[in-house]
Protein backbone atom coordinates (compact mmCIF):
# COMPACT_ATOMS: atom_id res chain seq x y z
CA UNK A 1 0.00 0.00 0.00
CA UNK A 2 1.31 3.45 -0.81
CA UNK A 3 0.99 6.47 1.40
CA UNK A 4 1.41 9.27 -1.16
CA UNK A 5 1.06 12.80 0.24
CA UNK A 6 -1.67 15.08 -1.21
CA UNK A 7 0.67 18.03 -1.29
CA UNK A 8 4.46 18.25 -1.69
CA UNK A 9 6.67 21.18 -0.67
CA UNK A 10 9.35 21.77 -3.31
CA UNK A 11 12.62 23.20 -1.98
CA UNK A 12 14.33 24.88 -4.92
CA UNK A 13 18.11 24.57 -4.57
CA UNK A 14 19.14 25.78 -8.04
CA UNK A 15 20.66 29.16 -7.07
CA UNK A 16 22.87 27.42 -4.47
CA UNK A 17 23.45 23.72 -5.20
CA UNK A 18 22.79 24.33 -8.88
CA UNK A 19 25.28 27.13 -9.39
CA UNK A 20 28.00 26.35 -6.83
CA UNK A 21 29.90 24.09 -9.22
CA UNK A 22 29.80 26.34 -12.30
CA UNK A 23 33.34 27.07 -13.47
CA UNK A 24 32.71 30.44 -15.18
CA UNK A 25 31.80 33.37 -12.89
CA UNK A 26 28.07 34.12 -13.09
CA UNK A 27 27.09 37.79 -12.64
CA UNK A 28 25.38 38.55 -9.32
CA UNK A 29 22.52 40.17 -11.28
CA UNK A 30 21.86 36.86 -13.09
CA UNK A 31 21.72 34.97 -9.78
CA UNK A 32 19.33 37.59 -8.39
CA UNK A 33 17.05 37.37 -11.41
CA UNK A 34 17.04 33.57 -11.13
CA UNK A 35 15.93 33.80 -7.49
CA UNK A 36 13.22 36.35 -8.37
CA UNK A 37 11.91 34.20 -11.22
CA UNK A 38 11.76 31.08 -9.03
CA UNK A 39 9.84 32.87 -6.29
CA UNK A 40 7.51 34.32 -8.92
CA UNK A 41 6.87 30.80 -10.25
CA UNK A 42 5.46 29.87 -6.83
CA UNK A 43 8.36 27.97 -5.27
CA UNK A 44 7.79 28.27 -1.51
CA UNK A 45 11.49 27.86 -0.62
CA UNK A 46 14.36 29.20 -2.74
CA UNK A 47 17.78 28.34 -1.30
CA UNK A 48 19.60 31.49 -2.29
CA UNK A 49 23.35 31.04 -1.75
CA UNK A 50 26.04 29.89 0.72
CA UNK A 51 28.08 31.79 3.28
CA UNK A 52 30.93 29.29 2.99
CA UNK A 53 34.58 30.07 2.38
CA UNK A 54 35.01 31.76 -1.02
CA UNK A 55 38.29 29.87 -1.31
CA UNK A 56 36.35 26.61 -1.24
CA UNK A 57 33.38 27.73 -3.37
CA UNK A 58 34.46 30.76 -5.43
CA UNK A 59 31.22 30.87 -7.43
CA UNK A 60 29.20 31.86 -4.35
CA UNK A 61 31.76 34.35 -3.05
CA UNK A 62 29.28 37.17 -3.78
CA UNK A 63 26.77 35.98 -1.13
CA UNK A 64 27.12 39.11 1.03
CA UNK A 65 26.39 41.31 -1.99
CA UNK A 66 23.67 39.11 -3.49
CA UNK A 67 21.53 38.33 -0.47
CA UNK A 68 20.62 41.89 0.63
CA UNK A 69 19.75 42.76 -2.99
CA UNK A 70 17.02 40.10 -3.26
CA UNK A 71 13.49 41.51 -3.33
CA UNK A 72 11.97 39.01 -0.97
CA UNK A 73 8.45 37.86 -1.77
CA UNK A 74 6.22 37.51 1.30
CA UNK A 75 5.60 33.87 2.19
CA UNK A 76 8.75 32.61 0.46
CA UNK A 77 11.72 31.35 2.51
CA UNK A 78 15.25 32.10 1.29
CA UNK A 79 17.59 29.86 3.31
CA UNK A 80 21.37 29.95 2.86
CA UNK A 81 24.06 27.40 3.70
CA UNK A 82 26.23 28.18 6.74
CA UNK A 83 29.17 25.91 7.70
CA UNK A 84 30.48 27.66 10.84
CA UNK A 85 30.28 30.77 13.03
CA UNK A 86 32.16 32.89 10.51
CA UNK A 87 29.51 32.05 7.91
CA UNK A 88 26.74 32.66 10.45
CA UNK A 89 28.06 36.13 11.29
CA UNK A 90 28.23 37.00 7.60
CA UNK A 91 24.68 35.67 7.07
CA UNK A 92 23.27 37.67 9.99
CA UNK A 93 25.00 40.78 8.69
CA UNK A 94 23.39 40.23 5.26
CA UNK A 95 19.89 39.99 6.77
CA UNK A 96 19.35 36.24 6.36
CA UNK A 97 16.30 34.80 8.17
CA UNK A 98 16.81 31.07 7.64
CA UNK A 99 19.97 28.97 7.44
CA UNK A 100 20.91 25.39 6.61
CA UNK A 101 23.77 23.55 8.29
CA UNK A 102 25.31 20.60 6.49
CA UNK A 103 27.15 17.47 7.44
CA UNK A 104 27.32 13.90 6.11
CA UNK A 105 26.85 10.24 6.92
CA UNK A 106 30.41 9.65 5.63
CA UNK A 107 33.49 10.75 7.58
CA UNK A 108 35.69 10.93 4.47
CA UNK A 109 33.25 13.08 2.50
CA UNK A 110 32.78 15.46 5.42
CA UNK A 111 36.52 15.91 5.75
CA UNK A 112 36.82 16.75 2.05
CA UNK A 113 33.76 18.99 2.00
CA UNK A 114 34.04 20.97 5.25
CA UNK A 115 37.37 19.89 6.70
CA UNK A 116 35.77 18.32 9.78
CA UNK A 117 34.74 14.93 11.10
CA UNK A 118 31.02 14.38 11.61
CA UNK A 119 31.37 14.98 15.37
CA UNK A 120 33.46 18.12 14.81
CA UNK A 121 30.89 19.49 12.38
CA UNK A 122 28.08 19.01 14.91
CA UNK A 123 30.21 20.78 17.55
CA UNK A 124 30.71 23.68 15.13
CA UNK A 125 26.97 23.91 14.64
CA UNK A 126 26.24 24.31 18.38
CA UNK A 127 27.09 28.04 18.60
CA UNK A 128 25.60 28.63 15.14
CA UNK A 129 22.31 27.14 16.27
CA UNK A 130 22.40 29.00 19.59
CA UNK A 131 22.73 32.30 17.70
CA UNK A 132 19.99 31.22 15.29
CA UNK A 133 17.70 30.54 18.26
CA UNK A 134 18.49 33.99 19.74
CA UNK A 135 17.70 35.65 16.43
CA UNK A 136 14.57 33.56 15.80
CA UNK A 137 16.06 32.05 12.64
CA UNK A 138 14.88 28.66 11.40
CA UNK A 139 17.59 26.04 10.81
CA UNK A 140 17.42 23.25 8.25
CA UNK A 141 19.90 20.35 8.33
CA UNK A 142 21.48 18.41 5.48
CA UNK A 143 23.01 14.95 5.59
CA UNK A 144 25.09 14.10 2.50
CA UNK A 145 26.06 10.72 1.09
CA UNK A 146 22.95 8.96 2.40
CA UNK A 147 23.09 6.28 -0.32
CA UNK A 148 26.79 6.10 -1.05
CA UNK A 149 30.03 8.00 -0.77
CA UNK A 150 32.62 8.68 -3.48
CA UNK A 151 35.39 7.77 -0.99
CA UNK A 152 33.82 5.06 1.21
CA UNK A 153 31.28 3.37 -1.04
CA UNK A 154 28.31 1.85 0.78
CA UNK A 155 26.77 3.85 3.63
CA UNK A 156 24.62 2.07 6.20
CA UNK A 157 21.08 3.45 6.69
CA UNK A 158 21.71 3.40 10.45
CA UNK A 159 24.60 5.87 10.03
CA UNK A 160 22.20 8.21 8.20
CA UNK A 161 19.53 7.76 10.87
CA UNK A 162 21.97 8.52 13.66
CA UNK A 163 23.26 11.82 12.29
CA UNK A 164 19.75 12.89 11.18
CA UNK A 165 18.42 12.33 14.68
CA UNK A 166 21.29 14.37 16.15
CA UNK A 167 20.50 17.32 13.86
CA UNK A 168 16.85 17.25 14.90
CA UNK A 169 17.79 16.99 18.59
CA UNK A 170 20.06 20.02 18.12
CA UNK A 171 17.11 22.05 16.83
CA UNK A 172 16.85 21.62 13.05
CA UNK A 173 13.20 21.80 11.99
CA UNK A 174 13.85 19.46 9.05
CA UNK A 175 16.63 17.23 7.74
CA UNK A 176 17.24 16.84 4.03
CA UNK A 177 18.69 13.48 3.01
CA UNK A 178 21.18 13.98 0.18
CA UNK A 179 22.06 11.32 -2.37
CA UNK A 180 25.08 13.44 -3.23
CA UNK A 181 26.47 11.29 -6.04
CA UNK A 182 23.18 9.88 -7.31
CA UNK A 183 24.14 6.30 -6.52
CA UNK A 184 20.81 5.27 -4.98
CA UNK A 185 18.18 3.05 -6.54
CA UNK A 186 14.50 2.98 -5.53
CA UNK A 187 14.36 0.08 -3.07
CA UNK A 188 17.57 1.15 -1.34
CA UNK A 189 16.33 4.74 -1.18
CA UNK A 190 13.09 3.58 0.43
CA UNK A 191 14.95 1.32 2.86
CA UNK A 192 17.21 4.21 3.91
CA UNK A 193 14.26 6.58 4.36
CA UNK A 194 12.35 3.98 6.38
CA UNK A 195 15.37 3.51 8.69
CA UNK A 196 15.67 7.26 9.25
CA UNK A 197 11.91 7.60 9.80
CA UNK A 198 12.17 5.19 12.73
CA UNK A 199 14.14 7.91 14.54
CA UNK A 200 12.88 11.15 12.96
CA UNK A 201 9.21 11.83 12.16
CA UNK A 202 8.52 11.69 8.42
CA UNK A 203 7.14 15.25 8.43
CA UNK A 204 10.61 16.47 9.47
CA UNK A 205 12.35 14.75 6.56
CA UNK A 206 13.10 15.91 3.02
CA UNK A 207 14.68 14.04 0.12
CA UNK A 208 17.46 15.44 -2.08
CA UNK A 209 18.43 13.41 -5.12
CA UNK A 210 21.08 13.98 -7.75
CA UNK A 211 20.37 12.42 -11.12
CA UNK A 212 23.90 11.21 -11.91
CA UNK A 213 22.70 7.75 -12.94
CA UNK A 214 19.17 8.64 -14.05
CA UNK A 215 17.57 7.22 -10.89
CA UNK A 216 16.30 10.39 -9.23
CA UNK A 217 12.62 10.39 -10.28
CA UNK A 218 12.28 6.68 -9.55
CA UNK A 219 13.88 7.21 -6.14
CA UNK A 220 11.56 10.12 -5.39
CA UNK A 221 8.51 8.10 -6.35
CA UNK A 222 9.63 5.21 -4.12
CA UNK A 223 10.14 7.60 -1.18
CA UNK A 224 6.81 9.38 -1.76
CA UNK A 225 5.16 6.00 -1.24
CA UNK A 226 6.34 6.20 2.38
CA UNK A 227 4.67 9.59 2.78
CA UNK A 228 7.61 11.99 2.62
CA UNK A 229 6.25 15.35 1.51
CA UNK A 230 9.27 17.64 1.03
CA UNK A 231 11.44 17.28 -2.07
CA UNK A 232 14.55 19.27 -3.03
CA UNK A 233 15.15 19.94 -6.71
CA UNK A 234 17.01 22.32 -8.98
CA UNK A 235 15.62 24.24 -11.94
CA UNK A 236 16.93 22.96 -15.29
CA UNK A 237 18.69 20.15 -13.42
CA UNK A 238 21.60 22.44 -12.56
CA UNK A 239 24.06 21.25 -9.99
CA UNK A 240 26.83 19.18 -8.56
CA UNK A 241 29.11 19.16 -5.56
CA UNK A 242 32.76 20.09 -6.18
CA UNK A 243 33.87 17.78 -3.35
CA UNK A 244 32.09 14.72 -4.73
CA UNK A 245 33.63 13.53 -7.97
CA UNK A 246 30.95 12.43 -10.38
CA UNK A 247 28.12 14.34 -8.67
CA UNK A 248 26.07 15.67 -11.57
CA UNK A 249 22.99 17.84 -11.53
CA UNK A 250 20.21 17.73 -8.99
CA UNK A 251 16.96 16.24 -10.18
CA UNK A 252 15.25 18.95 -12.25
CA UNK A 253 12.44 20.86 -10.53
CA UNK A 254 10.27 20.96 -13.65
CA UNK A 255 10.58 17.18 -14.19
CA UNK A 256 9.65 16.52 -10.55
CA UNK A 257 6.66 18.86 -10.70
CA UNK A 258 5.43 17.35 -13.96
CA UNK A 259 5.52 13.93 -12.32
CA UNK A 260 3.78 15.18 -9.17
CA UNK A 261 1.05 17.00 -11.10
CA UNK A 262 0.51 13.88 -13.19
CA UNK A 263 0.07 11.94 -9.94
CA UNK A 264 -2.51 14.48 -8.71
CA UNK A 265 -0.12 15.81 -6.04
CA UNK A 266 -0.32 19.57 -5.51
CA UNK A 267 2.84 21.74 -5.32
CA UNK A 268 1.43 25.24 -5.86
CA UNK A 269 4.06 25.88 -8.57
CA UNK A 270 3.26 27.45 -11.95
CA UNK A 271 4.94 24.95 -14.25
CA UNK A 272 4.78 27.25 -17.26
CA UNK A 273 6.74 29.96 -15.45
CA UNK A 274 9.19 27.38 -14.10
CA UNK A 275 9.73 25.98 -17.59
CA UNK A 276 10.47 29.50 -18.87
CA UNK A 277 12.95 29.96 -16.03
CA UNK A 278 14.69 26.68 -16.87
CA UNK A 279 15.06 27.78 -20.50
CA UNK A 280 16.21 31.27 -19.46
CA UNK A 281 18.93 30.19 -16.98
CA UNK A 282 20.19 27.59 -19.45
CA UNK A 283 20.52 30.33 -22.08
CA UNK A 284 22.45 32.46 -19.58
CA UNK A 285 24.84 29.54 -19.02
CA UNK A 286 25.07 28.85 -22.75
CA UNK A 287 23.68 25.34 -22.77
CA UNK A 288 20.55 23.22 -23.11
CA UNK A 289 18.54 22.52 -19.95
CA UNK A 290 19.61 19.24 -18.35
CA UNK A 291 15.94 18.48 -17.65
CA UNK A 292 13.76 16.45 -19.99
CA UNK A 293 10.89 18.95 -19.85
CA UNK A 294 13.10 21.98 -20.51
CA UNK A 295 14.17 20.55 -23.87
CA UNK A 296 10.60 20.38 -25.19
CA UNK A 297 8.70 23.55 -26.23
CA UNK A 298 6.48 24.53 -23.34
CA UNK A 299 3.06 23.87 -24.99
CA UNK A 300 4.11 20.39 -26.01
CA UNK A 301 5.86 19.74 -22.71
CA UNK A 302 2.82 20.53 -20.56
CA UNK A 303 0.02 19.36 -22.87
CA UNK A 304 -0.27 15.82 -21.42
CA UNK A 305 -1.26 17.28 -18.05
CA UNK A 306 -4.51 18.46 -19.69
CA UNK A 307 -5.35 15.12 -21.30
C1 LIG B 1 33.90 24.93 6.39
C2 LIG B 1 35.13 25.56 5.79
C3 LIG B 1 35.07 27.08 5.89
C4 LIG B 1 36.33 25.05 6.56
O1 LIG B 1 37.51 25.42 5.88
P1 LIG B 1 38.88 25.65 6.66
O2 LIG B 1 39.90 25.99 5.65
O3 LIG B 1 39.11 24.46 7.55
O4 LIG B 1 38.50 26.93 7.55
P2 LIG B 1 39.23 27.66 8.74
O5 LIG B 1 38.24 27.82 9.84
O6 LIG B 1 40.56 27.01 9.04
O7 LIG B 1 39.53 29.12 8.11
C5 LIG B 1 40.42 29.32 7.03
C6 LIG B 1 40.16 30.67 6.37
O8 LIG B 1 38.85 30.68 5.80
C7 LIG B 1 38.06 31.73 6.37
N1 LIG B 1 36.67 31.25 6.55
C8 LIG B 1 36.29 30.23 7.32
N2 LIG B 1 34.96 30.08 7.24
C9 LIG B 1 34.51 31.03 6.42
C10 LIG B 1 33.21 31.39 5.97
N3 LIG B 1 32.13 30.72 6.35
N4 LIG B 1 33.09 32.43 5.13
C11 LIG B 1 34.19 33.12 4.70
N5 LIG B 1 35.45 32.82 5.10
C12 LIG B 1 35.60 31.79 5.96
C13 LIG B 1 38.73 32.03 7.69
O9 LIG B 1 38.41 33.34 8.12
C14 LIG B 1 40.19 31.84 7.34
O10 LIG B 1 40.63 32.99 6.60
P3 LIG B 1 42.16 33.48 6.63
O11 LIG B 1 42.47 33.70 8.08
O12 LIG B 1 42.94 32.34 6.00
O13 LIG B 1 42.10 34.71 5.76
C15 LIG B 1 35.28 25.15 4.30
O14 LIG B 1 35.56 23.79 4.26
C16 LIG B 1 34.06 25.43 3.46
O15 LIG B 1 33.68 26.58 3.30
N6 LIG B 1 33.44 24.37 2.91
C17 LIG B 1 32.20 24.50 2.15
C18 LIG B 1 32.15 23.47 1.06
C19 LIG B 1 30.82 23.56 0.34
O16 LIG B 1 30.16 24.59 0.34
N7 LIG B 1 30.44 22.45 -0.31
C20 LIG B 1 29.22 22.39 -1.05
C21 LIG B 1 28.01 22.44 -0.19
S1 LIG B 1 27.53 20.86 0.50
C22 LIG B 1 26.64 20.14 -0.74
O17 LIG B 1 26.62 20.62 -1.84
C23 LIG B 1 25.81 18.93 -0.44
C24 LIG B 1 24.32 19.26 -0.26
C25 LIG B 1 24.07 20.16 0.92
O18 LIG B 1 23.82 19.93 -1.41
C26 LIG B 1 23.51 17.97 -0.08
C27 LIG B 1 23.92 16.82 -0.98
O19 LIG B 1 23.71 16.87 -2.19
O20 LIG B 1 24.50 15.89 -0.43
TrEMBL record:
Name of the top EC class for this enzyme: lyase
Swiss-Prot/TrEMBL keywords: Lyase, Metal-binding
Top-level lineage group: Bacteria
EC number of the protein: 4.1.3.4
Protein name: hydroxymethylglutaryl-CoA lyase
Pyruvate carboxyltransferase domain residues: 8-275
Pathway where this protein functions: Metabolic intermediate metabolism; (S)-3-hydroxy-3-methylglutaryl-CoA degradation; acetoacetate from (S)-3-hydroxy-3-methylglutaryl-CoA: step 1/1
Family: Belongs to the HMG-CoA lyase family.
InterPro entries: Aldolase_TIM, HMG_CoA_lyase_AS, HMGL, PYR_CT
Catalysed reactions, as listed in the record: (3S)-3-hydroxy-3-methylglutaryl-CoA = acetoacetate + acetyl-CoA
Keyword Transit peptide belongs to the record: no
PANTHER family per record: HYDROXYMETHYLGLUTARYL-COA LYASE
Species the sequence originates in: Natronospira proteinivora
